[in-house]
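Standup, Tuesday
Yesterday: got the pipeline producing structure tokens again.
Today: sanity-check two examples.
Blockers: none.

Example 1:
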Amino acid sequence: MLYDLFKYLREAFGLSGAGVFQFITFRVGAAIILSLVITMVYGKRLINFLRKKQIGETVRELGLEGQTSKKGTPTMGGIIIITGIVIPTLLFADVKNIYVLMMLLSTIWLGLIGFLDDYIKVFKKNKEGLKGRFKVVGQVGLGIIIGSLMYFNQHVVTTREVVKGEPIVYDATEKVIGSPTFRKEADGRVREYVKVRSAVTSVPFNKSHEISFAKIASVFGEKNVEWVTPIIYIVFVIFIITAVSNGANLTDGLDGLATGVSAIAGICLGLFAYVSGNYIFAEYLNIMHIPNLGELSVFMGAFVGACIGFLWYNTFPAQVFMGDTGSLALGGIIACMAIIVRKELLIPIFCGIFLVENLSVIAQTFYFKYQKKRRGLEYAQAHRLLKMAPLHHHYQKVGYHETKIVTRFWIVGIILAVLSVVSMKLQ
């Protein structure tokens, strides 16, 4: 809104200083500051409102240290995070940008699913909340929408240099959009570029840093590539959104854990969006250039600011829990951002904490079922793979204090994020 307003004032009236809103870095900073103000100032008011209405966490007895003290802590605090993301984005980002619209859709969509789950838990006194199959339906629905937009929308393109003697498009699924652009180099050379709509992703730690989903689809026969490719791509998107949002949901078990890990991943993704959207940085780093992607840096600035602001009240001992309203939204945002910036194959690294938490639950379940089938229920209950799943609860059972677990998980998250960023040069 402010972006469009000041753009108009600059073009129509030549307003002095209005041009500063054209700089992405300025708007990123403004989004961070505003999101911090919203979450820290107005977040306190919402916490008091939630406490007044007795919208508190229902804690299941799991035998964990300090668990009973959390009973009654206000939940549904994810509303604070979502508000801190949406308002700065609407004010400082270009809301006509397709990528910004997709991220706003993802935030609100999964936030509403999480809100419904929290509402059932708190107001209907149902500890199970929204049934798992309904959550999956919601995640799959979002995956279909995001996957379809990424594959079919004319504004979702990558830049490709036209090289004499080489094809511009490599298969029937790719399409050149618009007219070519020309750039004159310092040495006088003129280079030609075109925008191509294609289903590709980045391959980390590799000089030929792109792989097309059409190549994967060609396994089913070249003549089937055109209709198989979108199916494979959309299924891939659905899997990522479901896995990462569930991973964030499982990680949200200790004060500040999911929020801090999400902020770290958000900084990493914001940096990816900025450099991939800038053709100078993209060419220097030999990474995919995605036109208009830099606008998502503003969104990610609001995301990181909202997470940090929420941590003010969510660190141990937490004054509020984000609930599924926040955890599903955070995971969905990270998943959709990774898809949009074409860094899906880096998810196991910068989302390593979410991945390990997911795997710990899967491994615990399969090991228990295996032992139960082989040696009986009593043996399986006494010989679990972990003392408790997800993994952070295992460390609680071992005897580590909650703050130590959270801090060490943050440190691991920072290391993984740095490794992800460094991957742009390690080719």
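Example 2:
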Amino acid sequence: MLVLAMALGGCGKAAQETAVTEEESAVTVSTRSVGTGTITLTNSFVGTISPQETVMVIPLTAGTVTETFFEVGDTVQAGDVLFKIDDEAAKLQYETAQLGVKNAQQTADSTMDNLLNQQDSTSLQLEGSALQSKSSFEQAQIGYYTAKEAYEKLDKQCSDMKKQLEALKASQGISGNSPVSSKEIADLESDLASLQSARDQAWQGYLTAGSGYRTAQEAMNLSDETEVMTQEQLDQSVASTEDQLALSIDMAKLSAAQAELALDMYTVTAPVSGVIESKAVEVNGLVSQSGPAYTIVNNNTMTLTFQVSESVKDTLSPGQKITLERNNETYTASVTEIGTSVNPQSGLFQVKACVAANGTELPNGVSVKVSADTYRAENTMIIPYEAVYYENEGAYVYTSVNGRAVKTPITTGIFDDENIVVTGGLNLGDIVVTSWSPQLTDGVLLHAVDSGSGEETTDSEKEADTDTQTDAETDKAE
């Protein structure tokens, strides 16, 4: 402690005053600048190992076992025959169904041949009838035009003779000296009457021929229509019969396929590759669909199952990597399934993960320690955990401001063994005290060194400390 005495005098009066000043000592502390970082919390659980794939082979039919081909512990490939069941009755049913297909095909072929022959015969009959109708029509047409021509010829002759007779009569009446005699007129009138009679007969023949012509034409048209309609009906009948026969064949084939499928059920094969874990059938023993005959496990990859709380469940995601330990060996797993329903007994949620290990390394049923990253804060404000203090009002730190300690309340988030997340009270770049000292209090002078390197902190802090020390030295000099 340095004591400085100063003598003061004046105005004939002497006075002496002693000022005692105590030099302030600095507390040496470590500091660190507030920055950003990531904190990840890892939780541990107990999990159980099981094969990723377990298949229970249950036969689709019941009967007496005739052969078995694999025992417990044997390795099988998908498709290997595990055992056979007595299939004599099934073989008989299959052979019967095959005969049914053959009979249906033969019946269809025979029926179609008969039907097509009938269609050909009917078509020939229709063609003959059409030709006959056409021939009758052509003959009627010739008769019609012949009768018409004959009538028209006689009618013209009658008309010409009538005009001739009228001319003769006219000339006879004009001149009494006409060379036309009465006999000539009488003869001409007789000829006209005969010609008119012939014309009338021709007219009747013409009418009759016309009626026959129209009747023959209608008959020919009707024959043509009948041929077309009958042919359509025959085609429809052939198509319908063909469809029905095809359906009969398909039904027979379906029955044969079902019989073949039923026969295949009597030979039981491995649906997957793996290792036989259990066997429940014996030769000459009965087997049914009530329980598994074989159990096959795939031990190439294993499944890890563990349970977590709802809060931890919400932090996990499919595909997330986790680790597990057993006998000082560490394995990696990937989350494949996160349960959505809580276990009513444990109140936890089931999580499954695929483990990159086989059944030899991690046997079925063993328990392992599971470690999974749960809570995580990325690129957030963090400070060393040792810098934080707690009191009734909450958490606080000491910051270094102009070389002195400042008690600063803060709010915090998650933390690990080294760092803690700061959610309020500090800013990036603030300097916090990271070491403890019994002399560390609010406002105390600090001598700061970097906590990482042991060196003094930033130049600004160094300058602040130097200024303080200079003031003390000045007082000391005075």
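Quick observation on example 2: The helical segments are 88-174, 182-264, 310-313, 459-477. Residues 90-263 form a domain with the Helix Hairpins fold (CATH 1.10.287).
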